[in-house]
TrEMBL record:
It comes from Thalassococcus profundi. This is ABC transporter substrate-binding protein. Residues 90-456 form the Solute-binding protein family domain. Its main location: periplasm. CDD domains: PBP2_NikA_DppA_OppA_like_7. Residues 1-31 form the signal peptide. GO terms for biological process: peptide transport. Pfam families: SBP_bac_5.
Length: 537
């Protein structure tokens, strides 16, 4: 992670700024006080329940800030300054302590006796079981995420008494305890939800969509979908040190230029997820944190449900036509890491992921492959992007569109509103050709492949299936990485993925955060804002 810090620039707010900040009543963030922070984001929070089908990535932050998990990851200093989560350290959150049986299959957790839900009721092991039962039952993303850690069925979870929760695994897994620290297995006030659930909605999906019921560090004070979300501190939080902030305003501002102007002037204290161009230009004047996202790839995805993309020659032709370096410089401004121009042969023991592919721009080779395909005269296809992610997707799509035209493929760019993007690309998986990114929350390559290359799994937006890949992912997912069979199987997964190309890697992105008056920002693998450790001056 790099951090550029030279000075903070708090400028008085002029008439022009007042017109874009009605939610602040024309008051700069610096005047809000030391216990309030205003953050601008470009993406849409479309639900307050991470377990709900179609919930946007931006909405994950509610699960992080408003709910507790049994455990969390530690914190470490990041290279170049600032903080990062520490995957190698597990710390207590709701769990006071835990023990693992000798065979690795039984995990016993003791809950903190002082932990209370917002309504004052004690957090019990029955709430933990209900919450885990919900996560493994509702289907979609949360259920598959739990499965990655070997958590698949309600009969694996037992509330022995109010303070003791036990997990029984079918087999020991290197991913189980880390999986308990990701946003999904959060603990819900089961009594409150069941009192408000409908007969045809026993898990309270409609209720929690608008009304969180947790024990976390912050409550949701107000939510205006498409506009803003306001957090209010839970002064009785037992999951960690009491946050310095009493109130946090998360404002949705679609325009990158407006978000940049607001944080640059000091009208807000933080702009989360700013474009790479702004990060490069702002680093000399305010705090900018740019962190290459672990286990994450920006990619172009041909959907195998679209007949031309069932032809391997077509997919490889596209891979050779892509102007990778132009995309990396134009869309990423050179931030992050390139993933093209590598060697096709994988050295023994090399399990690095993401990795450079063997593909680079070679139009002659692309034209040869198209001529050898079943579509030598080309075809037409929509190229879909999310308006929420337009800062990198739009320049990338324009460059891809231009390149594909040179090999006979006419791609018409389709812009989909951010609130509808996740449903279209990941739930319905109906986009023939699209840009997408996925970052694996648990930092191993088999975990990435579990999500992105297994049939039916959420981030397999290309509708890809390969029987050998299915078997390899299942075999490696829970296997210790020092098992002598693990590395060869991982390398075989790489070979298949980079030959069949259901996802064409472009580059490894960086997450950029600009801060002007806010301290304590910590990078997390989930790429969402954890407001708990932040303070303002």
């Amino acid at each position: 992670m790099t951090q550029g810090t030279t000075r903070r620039n708090f400028l008085k707010m002029g008439a022009g700024a007042a017109s874009v900040l009605p939610f602040l009543r024309a008051m700069p963030a610096a005047a809000q006080g030391s216990d309030t922070m205003v953050v601008v984001i470009g993406e849409t929070i479309n639900s307050l329940d991470l377990h709900r089908s179609g919930t946007s990535r931006a909405a994950y932050q509610v699960g992080i800030n408003c709910y507790d998990r049994l455990v969390s990851f530690g914190t470490k200093e990041a290279i170049g300054g600032g903080l990062s989560y520490d995957y190698s350290v597990i710390e207590p959150e709701l769990a006071e302590s835990w023990a693992v049986s000798e065979d690795g299959k039984t995990l016993t957790f003791k809950l903190k006796p002082e932990a209370r839900f917002w309504d004052g009721r004690q957090v019990t092991a029955q709430d933990v079981k209900w919450s885990f039962d919900r996560a493994v039952t509702v289907g979609g993303f949360p259920t598959v995420q739990m499965k990655a850690g070997g958590l698949e069925r309600p009969d694996q979870f037992e509330a022995v008494d109010d303070a003791t929760f036990v997990i029984t695994l079918d087999r020991p897994s290197k991913l189980t305890i880390p999986d308990l620290a990701v946003p999904v297995p959060y603990i819900i006030n089961s009594v409150e939800v069941q009192e408000n659930a409908a007969e045809d909605d026993p898990w309270g999906l409609e209720y929690l969509h608008t009304t969180p019921a947790g024990s976390g560090a912050f409550k949701v004070l107000r939510w205006a979908p498409g506009e803003q979300l306001v957090y209010e501190r839970n002064d009785d939080w037992a999951g960690g040190p009491l946050p310095a902030l009493k109130r946090v305003v998360i404002r949705e501002v679609p325009s990158p230029a407006t978000r940049r102007a607001l944080v640059e002037r000091g009208d807000v204290q933080m702009a989360f997820g700013i474009p790479d161009k702004d990060a490069a230009e702002l680093a000399d004047t305010i705090d900018v944190f740019s962190t290459p996202v672990e286990n994450c790839i920006h990619c172009l995805c041909p959907n195998f449900s679209f007949e031309p993309f069932q032809d391997a020659n077509v997919r490889k032709a596209i891979a050779y036509a892509i102007p990778y370096e132009d995309i990396f410089q134009t869309a990423a401004f050179g931030r992050g890491l390139p993933l093209y121009g590598g060697e096709a042969e994988i050295a023994a023991g090399d399990t690095q992921w993401p990795r450079k592919t063997q593909y680079d721009t070679d139009l002659d080779r692309a034209k040869e492959l198209m001529a050898a395909s079943a579509y030598p005269d080309g075809f037409e296809v929509p190229l879909s992007i999310s308006l929420d992610l337009a800062s990198w997707m739009e320049p990338t799509a324009l460059l891809v569109q231009e390149a594909l035209a040179k090999i006979g493929i006419t791609a018409e760019i389709e812009k989909i509103p951010g609130a509808n993007w996740r449903t279209a690309v990941l739930v319905e998986k109906r986009l023939p050709l699209h840009l997408e990114n996925f970052g694996g929350w648990l930092n191993t390559p088999d975990y990435y492949f579990f999500w992105a290359y297994k049939d039916g799994h959420l981030f397999n937006s290309s509708n890809y299936r390969n029987e050998e890949m299915e078997e390899l992912v299942d075999a490696t997912l829970h296997m210790p990485m020092d098992d002598p069979e693990w590395a060869p199987m991982i390398q075989r997964m790489f070979e298949i993925a980079l030959d069949e190309l259901p996802r064409i890697p472009l580059y490894q992105p960086a997450l950029n955060v600009a801060a002007n008056g806010a301290e304590g920002y910590e990078f997390w693998f989930h790429r969402q804002l954890d407001v708990r450790p932040i303070s303002v001056g």
